[in-house]
Write a structure and sequence with these properties.
The chain is mostly helical. The protein has two domains: about 100 residues, Orthogonal Bundle (Arc Repressor Mutant, subunit A), CATH 1.10.10.10; about 40 residues. The protein contains seven helices and three strands. A three-stranded antiparallel beta sheet has the order 1-3-2. β2 and β3 form a beta hairpin. α1 packs across α3 and α2 packs across α3. It is elongated and about 60 Å long.
Length: about 170
Amino acid sequence: MSADPASSHPDPTPRLAARALSRGDLRLLLLSLLGEQPAHGYELIRQVEHMFGGVYKPSAGAVYPVLTQFQQQGWVRVEDEGGRKRYHATEAGRLHMKDQHYELQQARERVRDSARCITKAHLPQDVRAAMSQLKQALQARHGQWDPAQAEAAAEAIRAAALAIHHGRPRGR
């Protein structure tokens, strides 16, 4: 029996190896985001998606029931804006956030770590290898930089970041 040739190549779009959010973190994250500013449910979904570089997006079926629970608990109030609901943290919600400050902070850190791992896992292998080469080159300096070398390295990195951001390879 021969092996499937497609199975010998890595999947070009890797699946999430683990859950993007730990149990209860979506609740804490949504509450934290509402503590920063009022938002529509869709805006909250987009904010979380942005945190994960677009590789994870919570479903409306996960977000809206949580917002309804927040409203029932008195942590948010809802303002109707032309058929769309905007959620605002209430004083009770802010007090709850203050009581849960440590848990909110820990959830934010878990989200940052998870987002970083998931985003990195979705980078093409060539990009991960190049990032590793860059890190090794920087570490090989052993902290020995004169101002001109540091500025040249910083400028090269900024130029590469700008080219990547705008979808243009350097030198073209």
